[in-house]
Amino acid sequence: MTEPDVTLTDYGLALECILFAFLIYCHGDPKTSLRPRFVLFFASIGLAALAGGTVHGFFPDSATSGYRILWTATLIAAGLAAFATWALAARLWLSEKTERRLVKLALIEFFAYGVTVLFFPQEFWIVLANYLPPTLFLLIVFYELHRHMRIQELRSGTIGLVLTFVAAAVQHGRIAVHPVYFNHNSLYHVIQAIALFLIFRSARWLVKKRPRSSRGGVDKPSATVLGSAEHGDGRLDCGVLK
């Protein structure tokens, strides 16, 4: 194992994300379309971490076929995570018509990103440039939802998304605890793991099964929700967002 600190933290991140995807799938409300989007979000990040950790640990030579296959898989999985992030933010914030348009554009962008990854130099800054815009969009959505609804879980998600930017800055700035034993990639993984746990708290609340009201809608999940309700499609409406 050539980079044990990076490999092990990557594998830990992968296990965390696989667990989160499993919990969301098993315990989330199957009637909300947020559930498969969160499953895709966590599963794709987990796949990227698994493939990336294997590259760092066992295929460091970029001339080998193992490196090329696994690094390409890492970048494609990261692109899927970006697509899932666009889809989540669109579902939570936008009208149904605008959401469909944005998801279609995000899908086109994902295919363009895939072509770039397959046929042009594969550098990690491309992943960051592709992932940061939808992450910023989702951060704004979570912040606005928390500001109007005052739900603790939404606050956790907001903090988690802020931490993803901190993690990206650490990785891009090559900030390390130790240059050999715990480098910038390892620190990036640890911060990202904390961020994803906080995002999972929000995801678990958003997809939670709730009793149906007599009018066919979803009852308020908490007495602290200020005039809010969740539509059957997973879109939240707090009276001021639409």
Low-confidence stretches: 213-229, 238-242
Q: What is the tally of helical segments?
A: 7
Rounded average pLDDT: 86
Largest sheet descriptor: 2 strands, antiparallel
What is the structural class? Answer: mainly alpha
The share of residues in extended strands comes to under 5%
Shape: globular
Strand line-up of the largest beta sheet = 1-2
- Total domains, how many? 1
Query: What integer value in Å does the Rg equal?
Result: 19 Å
Distance between the termini: 52 Å
Write down how many β-strands occur, each being a DSSP E stretch of 2 or more residues.
2
Summarize the helix and strand pattern as letters: HHHHHHHEE
Q: Helix share of residues?
A: over 70%
Give me a quick take on this structure:
This protein is an all-alpha fold. Helix content is 71%, strand content 2%.
Features:
Rhopdopsin 7-helix transmembrane proteins, mainly alpha, 71% helix, 2 strands, 242 residues
How does the SSE layout of this entry go?
Blueprint: H1 4-27, H2 34-58, H3 65-93, H4 96-119, H5 124-149, H6 152-173, H7 184-206, E1 229-230, E2 236-237
Antiparallel strand pairs: 1-2
Walk me through this protein's architecture.
This protein has helices at 4-27, 34-58, 65-93, 96-119, 124-149, 152-173, 184-206; strands spanning 229-230, 236-237. It is mainly α. It has one domain (4-208, 220-237): Up-down Bundle (Rhopdopsin 7-helix transmembrane proteins), CATH 1.20.1070. The protein has a two-stranded antiparallel ribbon with strand order 1-2.
